[in-house]
Automatic annotation (TrEMBL):
Family affiliation: Belongs to the class-V pyridoxal-phosphate-dependent aminotransferase family. NifS/IscS subfamily.
Cofactor(s), names only, from the UniProt record: pyridoxal 5'-phosphate
Protein name (Swiss-Prot/TrEMBL): cysteine desulfurase
Alphabetical list of PANTHER family matching this protein: CYSTEINE DESULFURASE, CYSTEINE DESULFURYLASE FAMILY MEMBER
Catalyzed reactions per annotation: (sulfur carrier)-H + L-cysteine = (sulfur carrier)-SH + L-alanine
Segments forming domain Rhodanese: 401-490
EC number: 2.8.1.7
Top-level division of the source organism's lineage: Bacteria
Presence of keyword NADP: no
This protein's UniProt keywords: Aminotransferase, Iron, Iron-sulfur, Metal-binding, Pyridoxal phosphate, Transferase
Lineage, broadest ranks: Bacteria, Pseudomonadati, Pseudomonadota, Gammaproteobacteria, Alteromonadales
InterPro entries: Aminotrans_V_dom, Aminotrans_V_PyrdxlP_BS, PyrdxlP-dep_Trfase, PyrdxlP-dep_Trfase_major, PyrdxlP-dep_Trfase_small, Rhodanese-like_dom, Rhodanese-like_dom_sf
GO terms of molecular function: transaminase activity
Length: 502
């Protein structure tokens, strides 16, 4: 058996969703037929420009906005950046110090942007949230003041699903003369969004979270709110974003938004599937807890903590059975520190490491949930029977000199170019799984290493199913080992590495 890339059960919809067939069809038509440059002055160009206008209208009406208030970007990350930089430019032009108040559980496209701006003199403060991931509105009333230029708060969180009272927050911001940006990426298609009722100045969106294509996002900008271009060049997007428009992606986004009323209708079914999952899991593991579930939460999102279980082990086990779930935000998954969202709601690093995110979609069926429940029960019954996690500190001089240890570097060819390996390791590409099974002794003391530790965990489950009895996984992978043994890495990394498969 080789890795199976077809998914039986896909429950990582907050990371991305399957593109719907209607979207694929609409996009293919653009790619094949309507390939004109929307800025060109001939029929093909006009046709492309018209398709963009139609998509803009559809997206606008799905959030009760006017089409002239919608601007396309390459992603929601870019959209969040553009809004924040627009406010910064506005304040810089007026030579005023800017204070931005944000929730501590925002997406990294906001958190990281604000961290960078702090170094440039912008004051950044964080709102108080409770254990369920909700903003303390009373505390916000004290915190948001006349000095505040911008308030950033997402409508729904991507990791734990908590839904915020944006209307209340927007009112406070308005009273203090501050603008408010709400990242609505995870809310679109799950909550009925009306930007006028929410009374927000900016909202950001991403197509790939609603069964549309990747690489296309949008900003809603209220009349009168400042907007500055992030990318200089041509006059596309009314002069607010240079670069030839990605017509097929924009059309795909518009097509995806046509299905929003259907997605909203399906959310009660999704919620009942999530409830069923919770009930079943608790039956065979009473220690499981659910984050943010005692409060208003997205119908599709379940953040589940299983005490004493390493999240990567569970994810790898399920992956072996063609089931995709995740630990936290996909864009932070190579960073080994605990999720900032889980920490902000009070979880320790250990508890965060025991937490997985299961995110359903309108396409999730009862049989998917039943399959997941069955596999989870198998996992609990035989948790880590022959797989041990090895911290990076354990692989020291003595360990490396112990002939009983067979270190297997399972990274791909290109990953190996980026970082040298642990000395004395054996390079086996993870796709050459069968060769490992055929050539290595089932009793060997195997230590699996890869860049971040994730692929190793997956590989470990494959080997375990093939009868290997002593498997160890380097947690955090080579990145963690390099950090823990900087000198050893500097002196010896890459030496005496045995190339098996290339
Ligand atoms: N905001 C939230 C809440 C998200 O979940 C994501 C994607 O994970 C983004 C922003 C970024 O979206 P994009 O992938 O379009 O940059």
């Amino acid at each position: 058996m080789i890795f199976n890339f077809t998914r039986k059960v896909y429950l990582d919809n907050n990371a991305t969703t399957l593109i719907s067939s209607a979207v694929t069809k609409a996009m293919n038509k653009v790619l094949k037929t309507h390939f004109g440059n929307p800025s060109s002055h001939h029929t093909l160009g006009y046709k492309a420009a018209n398709l963009i206008a139609q998509a803009r209208s559809i997206i606008a009406s799905s959030i009760q906005a006017n089409h002239k208030n919608i601007f396309f970007t390459s992603s929601a990350s870019e959209a969040n950046n553009q809004v924040i930089h627009s406010i910064v430019s506005d304040f810089e032009a007026r030579q005023q110090t800017l204070k931005i108040i944000t929730s501590p559980i925002e997406h990294m496209s906001i958190i990281a942007t604000l961290k960078a701006l702090e170094k440039r003199g912008v004051i950044v403060e964080y709102l108080t949230i409770d254990h369920h991931g909700h903003i303390d509105i009373e505390a916000a009333k004290q915190q948001i003041d006349a000095e505040t230029g911008l308030v950033c708060c997402m409508l729904a969180n991507n990791e734990i699903g908590s839904i915020q009272n944006i209307q209340a927050l927007a009112k406070i911001a308005e009273q203090q003369g501050a603008f408010i940006l709400s990242d609505c990426v995870q809310a679109l298609g799950k909550i009925d969004i009306n930007v006028n009722q929410l009374n927000i100045d900016y909202a950001t969106f991403s197509a790939h979270k609603v069964h549309g294509p990747k690489g296309i996002g949008a900003i809603y900008v209220k009349d009168g709110a400042p907007l500055t271009r992030l990318i200089q060049g041509g006059d596309q997007e009314s002069g607010f974003r240079a670069g030839t428009e990605s017509v097929h992606n924009i059309v795909g986004f518009g097509q995806a938004c046509k299905a929003i009323p259907y997605l909203l209708k399906q959310s009660s079914i999704t919620l009942s599937l999530k409830e069923k999952l919770k009930q079943e899991v608790i039956k065979f593991n009473k220690n499981v807890t659910f984050n943010a579930e005692q409060s208003e939460t997205l119908s599709n999102t379940l953040s589940m903590r299983i005490p004493s279980v390493d999240k990567h082990s569970l994810m790898a086990f399920l992956d072996y059975y063609d089931t995709s779930i995740s630990s936290d935000s996909a864009c932070c998954s190579t960073n080994h520190s605990a999720s900032h969202v889980l920490k902000a709601i009070g979880l320790t690093d250990k508890q965060a490491n025991e937490t997985v995110r299961i995110s359903l979609s309108a396409q999730t069926k009862m049989k998917d949930i039943q399959y997941l429940v069955k596999k989870l029960s198998h996992f609990f019954a035989a948790y880590n029977h022959n797989i041990t996690l090895l911290g990076p500190n354990s692989i020291d001089y003595n360990f490396l000199n112990d002939d009983n240890n067979y270190i297997l570097d399972i990274r791909g060819k290109y990953e190996r170019l980026l970082m040298k390996s642990i000395p004395n390791s054996h390079e086996h590409h993870f796709l050459n799984y069968q060769e490992v099974v055929n050539t290595l002794n089932k009793e060997a003391n195997l230590i699996l290493i890869c860049t971040s530790g994730m692929k190793s965990m997956l590989f470990a489950y494959q080997l375990s199913h093939s009868g290997f009895q002593n498997i160890k996984v380097l947690t955090g992978g080579l990145m963690a080992w390099k950090k823990a043994h900087a000198k050893l890495y500097h002196d010896l990394a890459g030496t005496n590495v045995i190339k098996i498969d290339e």
